[in-house]
């Protein structure tokens, strides 16, 4: 038997069958083992591909989720800010309507603060200023809902006040003037619009304003005109009034201060005040629209309201 084993033997190694005949080794391929190895390799290959595919899909899902989460968080944040602004507008509207009921000098209590008109937040802060500061010289850019307040103030609250309201639209002036009180100290003035270039951008302003303002020192300036939408530097007439037409103590209100254009104009106002060594304070009021209020030190208490 041992002689036979020496002459002839068979051993399985991996996928080969080793046959020894008289000391000579012959290597034969083991088809069964080859198939098993191929099957195992195929299974491992498929598993590896599946593993990589699952990992890639999970990574992609994670990226998609993060993107969706960021977009959702941004939209939620904007939505909450919008809700907050609307709530603030409703709150200011409620206070404003309560306050005007007890003001004998406000004869016409009908205000329509919708669309592009002055909002309740603007009317509210204006009412506080008229009541607490009682300005003597008012310059108003843009005829509208605020004019219903300023004209009644000049007519019934402070007849010594001098009010000038500027607008470019004759049809709008004719439509509004029937709702406004008439008095010698109230001037509704039409001024044509002119186009000027600033930093390679075209913008609008009222023409020949110096003929209106002259050397008057204004303690209240309202800036809600001309139209500022889609302009890089809107409503810049105010720059021509600093410092020579500002009273020692003053308030300036810039409406639509949330817009990029008005923010650009606000920077120019601050620069002009700084260059002119005019001391001032400022704060923003945010509701459905925003107003920038700039005051001399004496009137900075307005921010408490």
What distance separates the N and C termini?
A: 115 Å
Structural class: alpha/beta
Name of the level-1 CATH class of the largest domain? Alpha Beta
CATH topology of the largest domain: Rossmann fold
- How many strands? 12
Question: What would CATH call the homologous superfamily of the largest domain?
Answer: Vaccinia Virus protein VP39
The shape is elongated
How many structural domains does the protein architecture include? Answer: 2
Strand order, largest beta sheet: 6-5-4-9-10-12-11
Q: What string gives the helices and strands in order?
A: HEEEHHEHEHEEEHEEHEE
Total helices: the number is: 7
Calculate Rg over CA atoms: 40 Å
Write the topology of this structure:
Layout: H1 2-7, E1 8-13, E2 16-21, E3 24-29, H2 31-101, H3 120-132, E4 137-141, H4 145-157, E5 162-167, H5 170-177, E6 186-190, E7 193-198, E8 201-206, H6 210-213, E9 218-223, E10 246-255, H7 260-275, E11 281-286, E12 290-295
Parallel strand pairs: 4-5, 4-9, 5-6, 9-10
Antiparallel strand pairs: 1-2, 2-3, 7-8, 10-12, 11-12
Helix pairs in contact: 2-3, 3-4
What does this structure look like?
- The chain is an alpha/beta fold and 305 residues long.
- It has 2 domains: 87 residues; 202 residues, Rossmann fold, CATH 3.40.50.
- The protein starts with a helix and ends in a 10-residue tail after the last strand.
């Amino acid at each position: 038997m041992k002689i036979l084993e020496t002459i002839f033997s068979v051993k399985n190694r991996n996928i080969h069958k080793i046959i020894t005949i008289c000391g000579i080794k012959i290597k034969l391929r083991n088809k069964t083992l080859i198939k098993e190895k191929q099957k195992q390799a195929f299974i491992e290959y498929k598993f590896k591909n599946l593993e990589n595919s699952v990992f890639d899909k999970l990574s992609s899902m994670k990226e998609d989720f993060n993107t969706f989460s960021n977009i959702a968080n941004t939209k939620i944040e904007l939505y909450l800010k919008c809700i907050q602004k609307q709530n603030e507008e409703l709150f200011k509207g409620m206070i404003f309507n309560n306050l005007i009921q007890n003001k004998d000098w406000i004869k016409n209590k009908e205000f329509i603060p919708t669309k592009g008109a002055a909002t309740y937040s603007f009317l509210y802060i204006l009412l506080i200023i008229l009541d607490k500061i009682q300005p003597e010289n008012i310059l108003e850019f843009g005829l509208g809902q605020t004019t219903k307040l300023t004209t009644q103030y000049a007519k019934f609250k402070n007849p010594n006040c001098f009010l000038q309201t500027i607008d470019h639209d004759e049809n709008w002036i004719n439509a509004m003037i029937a709702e406004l009180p008439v008095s010698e100290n109230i001037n509704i003035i039409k001024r044509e619009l002119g186009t000027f270039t600033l930093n390679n951008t075209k913008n609008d302003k009222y023409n020949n304003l110096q003929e209106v303002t002259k050397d008057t020192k204004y303690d209240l300036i309202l800036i809600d005109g001309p139209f500022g939408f889609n302009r890089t530097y809107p409503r810049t007439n105010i720059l021509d009034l600093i410092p020579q037409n500002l009273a020692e103590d003053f308030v300036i209100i810039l409406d639509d201060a949330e817009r990029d254009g008005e923010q650009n104009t606000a920077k120019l106002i601050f620069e002009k005040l700084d260059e002119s060594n005019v001391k001032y304070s400022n704060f923003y009021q945010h509701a459905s629209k925003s107003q920038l209020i700039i005051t001399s030190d004496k009137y900075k208490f307005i921010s408490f309201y």
